[in-house]
């Protein structure tokens, strides 16, 4: 069975973007067709400063979010990255495969480092090489992510190809990004040209998975829109990024296509559409946040789930690391 891997950073609360662009699709891929491995990437999170107590809490909360949203920790392997040292070990090998120039082209590096690149951590620069290791340490072939991770997945392919060529082997698979559905890029509720993000200074720009019903309804009611009603075709949403975003969010939450949303709501004013969207969002998200809060009452149980997941992950990762070392000529690898 083909293997699915994906990861989320425990660097803050989960947003609706993380849920619709990632977690909900992780849940959809769970089943007999794939072996599914999902990771809280704490080693990635610390490429920018994380308060230790907050990192602990965010990792547990992310785990609770995965489970509350429908990831079954028996069926999927659910764990945090630092408990499986093979990620960092393969990451080092890949640091020696990847080229500086490849990393310098990464738009996320340029965005996150900002003007003062000299002051960014070395880890932030090397981030995509560790990400390639996350995936390839399991020989995973399918990686569900939001649109913003596409460039990193192309680099993952480049690293696999270069490793295979350098050593004359056919060892690492070429991974497929799985970027599908209506919500591969959920936008800010305040600005339809910016991605919804946990790091946006305005809390009104995003829906957090821990928001209560009132907060969700308020944020949707206040979401920026244009004055026109909804059109009767999808083409009518071109150049209307905020309207398009709300239609996409509706579609993803309701598990229907944006076309169907338009067909059902054509001609509606936002004064009518927004309350429907708010009701739908509350109906879908409230059970998840309630369950997250319940799971967070027992952190020891969450820690047991993560430890068990890590042990299962290592059973796959350890032999692949050993073979990698052997290919590279490391004494003692076999
Ligand atoms: P991260 O933690 O920023 O985001 C986790 C996942 O959520 C998706 N996402 C979105 N999707 C749609 N709309 C949005 N507004 C939105 N915001 C976030 C992201 O695309 C991602 O799928 N580098 C990764 C974590 C990572 C990883 C990996 C992913 C580390 N190793 C290996 C896949 C495979 C990241 O920073 O995601």
UniProtKB/TrEMBL annotation:
Which InterPro entries does this entry report, sorted A to Z?
aa-tRNA-synth_I_CS, aa-tRNA-synth_Ic, Rossmann-like_a/b/a_fold, Trp-tRNA-ligase, Trp-tRNA-ligase_bac-type, Trp-tRNA_synthetase
- Residue numbers binding L-tryptophan: 134
Main subcellular location of this protein, as a coarse class: cytoplasm
Q: Which UniProt keywords apply?
A: Aminoacyl-tRNA synthetase, ATP-binding, Cytoplasm, Ligase, Nucleotide-binding, Protein biosynthesis
> What is this enzyme's catalytic activity, as reactions?
tRNA(Trp) + L-tryptophan + ATP = L-tryptophyl-tRNA(Trp) + AMP + diphosphate + H(+)
At which positions is motif 'KMSKS' region?
A: 195-199
Q: Which PROSITE patterns match?
A: AA_TRNA_LIGASE_I (PS00178)
Which EC numbers characterise this protein's activity in its record? Answer: 6.1.1.2
UniProt keyword annotation of Aminoacyl-tRNA synthetase present: yes
Question: Motif 'HIGH' region: which ranges?
Answer: 10-18
Q: Which GO terms describe its molecular function?
A: tryptophan-tRNA ligase activity
Q: Where is this protein found?
A: Cytoplasm
Residues annotated as binding ATP are: 9-11, 17-18, 146-148, 186, 195-199
Organism superkingdom: Bacteria
Assembly notes: Homodimer.
Protein family membership: Belongs to the class-I aminoacyl-tRNA synthetase family.
Q: Outline what the protein does.
A: Catalyzes the attachment of tryptophan to tRNA(Trp).
User: What name appears for this protein in its UniProt entry?
Assistant: Tryptophan--tRNA ligase
Q: Which organism is it from?
A: Ruegeria sediminis
């Amino acid at each position: 069975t083909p293997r699915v891997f994906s990861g989320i950073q425990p660097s803050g609360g989960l947003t609706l973007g993380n849920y619709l662009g990632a977690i909900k699709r992780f849940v959809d891929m769970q089943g007999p067709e794939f072996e599914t491995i999902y990771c809280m990437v704490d080693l990635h999170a610390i490429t920018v400063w994380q308060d230790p107590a907050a990192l602990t809490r965010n990792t547990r909360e992310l785990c609770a979010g995965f489970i509350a949203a429908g990831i079954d920790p028996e069926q999927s392997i659910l764990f945090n990255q630092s408990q499986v040292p093979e990620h960092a070990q393969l990451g080092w090998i890949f640091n020696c495969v990847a080229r500086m120039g490849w990393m310098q082209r990464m738009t996320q590096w340029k965005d996150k480092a900002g003007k003062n690149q000299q002051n960014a951590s070395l880890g932030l620069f090397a981030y995509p090489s560790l990400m390639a290791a996350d995936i390839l340490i399991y020989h995973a072939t399918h990686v569900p992510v939001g649109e913003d991770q596409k460039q990193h997945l192309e680099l993952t392919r480049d690293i696999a190809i270069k490793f295979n060529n350098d050593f004359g082997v056919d060892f690492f698979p070429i991974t497929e990004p799985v970027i599908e559905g209506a919500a591969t890029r959920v936008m800010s509720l305040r600005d339809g040209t910016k991605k919804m993000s946990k790091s946006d200074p305005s809390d009104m720009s995003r829906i957090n998975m821990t928001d209560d019903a009132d907060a969700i309804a308020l944020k949707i009611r206040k979401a920026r829109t244009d004055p026109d009603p909804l059109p009767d075709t999808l083409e009518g949403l071109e150049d209307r990024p905020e309207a398009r975003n709300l239609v996409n969010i509706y579609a993803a939450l309701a598990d229907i296509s944006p076309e169907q949303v338009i067909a059902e709501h054509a001609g509606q004013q936002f004064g009518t559409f927004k309350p429907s969207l708010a009701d739908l969002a509350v109906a879908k998200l409230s059970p998840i946040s309630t369950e997250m809060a319940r799971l967070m009452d027992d952190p020891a149980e969450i820690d047991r789930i993560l430890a068990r997941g890590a042990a299962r992950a290592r059973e796959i990762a350890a032999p692949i690391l050993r073979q990698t070392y052997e290919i590279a000529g490391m004494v003692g690898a076999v």
